[in-house]
Amino acid sequence: ITSAVAFDILPLKLHPFSQSTPTGLDCVGWKRRVSSSVITDGALDKTALTDDVGSEEDLYEDFRSSNHRYGHPGGGGEQLAINELISDGSVVYAEALWDHVTMDDQELGFKAGDVIEVMDATNKEWWWGRILDSEGWFPASFVRLRVNQDEPMEDYPLKVEGGKEDDSSSGTRRFGMGQTTKDQMRTNVINEIISTERDYIKHLKDICEGYIKQCRKRADMFTEEQLKTIFGNIEDIYRCQKKFVKALEKKFNKDYPHLSEVGSCFLEYQTEFQIYSEYCNNHPNACMELSRLTKVNKYVYFFEACRLLQKMIDISLDGFLLTPVQKICKYPLQLAELLKYTNPQHRDFKDVEAALNAMKNVARLINERKRRLENIDKIAQWQSSIEDWEGEDVLVRSSELIYSGELTKISHPQAKSQQRMFFLFDHQLVCCKKDLLRRDILYYKSRINMDDMEILDVEDGKDKDFNISVKNAFKLHCRDTEEVYLFCAKKPEQKQRWLKAFENERRQVQLDQETGFSITEVQKKQAMLNASKQHHTGKPKAVTRPYYDFLMRQKHPTLPTTLPQQQVFMLAEPKRKPSNFWQNISRLTPFRK
Predict the structure, then answer these.
(1) 468 to each of 410, 416, 472, how far by Cα in Å?
(2) Of 362, 363, 358, 397, which is closest to residue 379 (Cα–Cα)?
(3) In angstroms, rounded to a whole number, what is the distance separating the alpha carbons of residues 246 and 223?
(4) Is the pLDDT of residue 348 over 50?
């Protein structure tokens, strides 16, 4: 994903369930062992997780005393294979799934799509790598091993614009021990897509049957609301992916994989993949809820017992819950690589090309929805800073600040003019008045329902309705009541920005209706509650100026260099330079002055 989604940053000390899934999680062939100290007869009885607290505690005690964990010692077979290749002098490349931003000179920073030479994979969580002249540690879960390791570095697909091969003459190369062609490279990518999909389905099944099913049996430990917070809509994703993998397998040519035509499958399911948006947005809430629960030992033992009984690999629950997020990141990368090895004459070429664009659009949509959800906290904080607020909260109807600025409002019947600050949200325009002495303090005055309005451009000169001369003016006309509002900007360009902003507001409302974007009542209430707590615990407004402060604090906090950054689910956001007040507030909007 090129532009990224940055999920909430949670400190490791307060967030034990924050380790990202190691790269090997989506690889086949894990060897699973059963410790005799856990199950004496060598078989796992799934009925062991019952409502009988006593038997459950016995299992917990066995688990604790045995100190056994299923999985892959030292990072698993894949990690061992990587280190063997490196020891033999082979060069191992990985591609970045998303941005790794760091201020630590011991860590290697990179952007999504960058190619990293893996130099040491001894540690399963942090690998040592190199990009050009830079070397450093990086989180293993942020990368995906390159499918065709023997391909020359300069020909790597993600370094070519649009995912297409830059040099058509490089169609035939040596691969492994024998002669191969571009078709062999395509075969490798197709096989990876199919195998990782099958593995992914197994992980989703394990989560649904190994965790959710068992959690629902324990009503004394989990409420349905808690399970919804922890697991989100992962069951919906599981159902969707089962259908998707069946469609892929129908298009898979087992005898000649390079002839497989899988592009159409991605095009068919691009709309269904939008359900990942809800899951990704909920992911930080899941991490926080897990962090809270696992402060109690019985939950730690319960989750571990679920994993053992399902014979799942040695990854904590939060690692498994990160796999859907990682999966939606991988699709554009896999399709970009597939497109590189697909000849323009191939029957699948146009579909793969369209599928790559479609999956990039899905990623952009997820990013946009994440940004919108982050904005509701800022909007709630903004409202809490407004004095004398009346009526319903802004978040009841709105979730996006489109534009803001100062205008002169002219009212009937005596054409009285008033200087006001206006904030255009989706569905409504909020009017505020500046404090006479403290110009950074605003007082709520009124609001206008934009759903009933039409925008009228007014020429400079005398206005018939108000019988006054105007300049840089426009009107809002209510279609239901015939009420008319007249506004004047100071400069012609300011007027044009407002007219453009009103167009953007209507476009945003229409887009939300088409995509089904909405914010739940729980999310709205939580945002207002958080804003209220911050407001009450802070210093007086006259001292802290929260109206400015929240607008000026829109940068991501810098991560402590001692924390593994795979705790931060990142599909990165561009860094922003410090700017003045009005530039800051416009960052809540897609429209800038």
Answers:
(1) 10, 10, 13
(2) 397
(3) 34
(4) yes
Looking at residue 220, its pLDDT comes to 94
437-447: burial string, b at 16+ Cβ within 10 Å, e else: eeeebbebbeb
Which pLDDT value is given to residue 350?
A: 94
Residue found under tokens 């929805």: 369
Q: In what order do the strands lie in the sheet with 401-411?
A: 442-449, 428-434, 416-425, 401-411, 484-488, 473-478, 453-458
Model confidence over 521-567: pLDDT tens digits?
A: 878 888 888 888 776 554 344 333 443 444 444 333 333 334 343 33
Number of H helices and E strands in the chain, helices first, is 16, 16
Backbone angles phi, psi at 71, to 5 degrees: 135, -150
What's at 447, amino acid-wise? Answer: R
Q: Which of 154-158, 206-210, 327-331, 517-521 tops mean pLDDT?
A: 206-210
Question: Which residues partner with 498 through β-bridges?
Answer: none
Report the DSSP pairing between strands 484-488 and 442-449. unpaired
- Which range is least confidently modeled, 20-24, 144-148, 323-327, 336-340? 20-24
The rounded percent of the chain whose pLDDT value lies above 70 is: 69
The whole-number pLDDT of residue 306 equals 94
Q: List the structure tokens of 217.
A: 């049996």
Amino acid residing at 118: V
Grouping H, G, I as helix, E, B as strand and the rest as coil, residue 540 is: coil
CA angle 61, 65, 67 (to 5 degrees): 115
- And the tokens for 501? 């902003």
**Low-confidence winner among 282-286, 370-374, 499-503 (lowest mean pLDDT):** 370-374
CA 443 to CA 430: how far, in whole Å?
A: 11
On whether the CB atoms of residues 473 and 487 are closer than 8 A, the answer is yes
**Long-range own/partner contacts, residues 101-107 (CB < 8 A, 24 or more apart):** 101/559, 101/565, 101/570, 101/572, 101/575, 102/136, 102/559, 102/561, 102/565, 103/558, 103/559, 103/561, 104/136, 104/561, 105/136, 106/136, 106/137, 106/561, 107/136, 107/137, 107/138, 107/561, 107/565
Instruction: Identify residue 127 by its one-letter amino acid code.
Output: W
- How far is it, in rounded angstroms, from Cα 6 to Cα 518? 20
Tokens, residue 295: 């402060």
DSSP code per residue over 66-106: HT---S-GGGHHHHHHHHHHHHTT--EEEEESS-B----TT
Direct distance between the N- and C-terminal alpha carbons of the chain, in angstroms, rounded to an integer: 28
Residue 548: CB atoms within 10 A of its CB come to 15
The answer to whether the bond into 413 is cis (omega within 30° of 0) is: yes
Phi, psi angle pair for 392, to nearest 5°: -70, 160
pLDDT at 11 over 80: no
This model's pTM is above 0.85: no
How high does pLDDT run on average in the chain? 75
SS3 391: coil
CA distance 251 to 110: 35
Q: What is the chain's Cα-based Rg? A: 28
Mean pLDDT of 340-361: 92
pLDDT band at residue 102 using 50, 70 and 90 as cut-offs: low
pLDDT digits (tens, 9 = 90+) for 15-27: 333 333 333 333 3
CA distance 247 to 252: 9
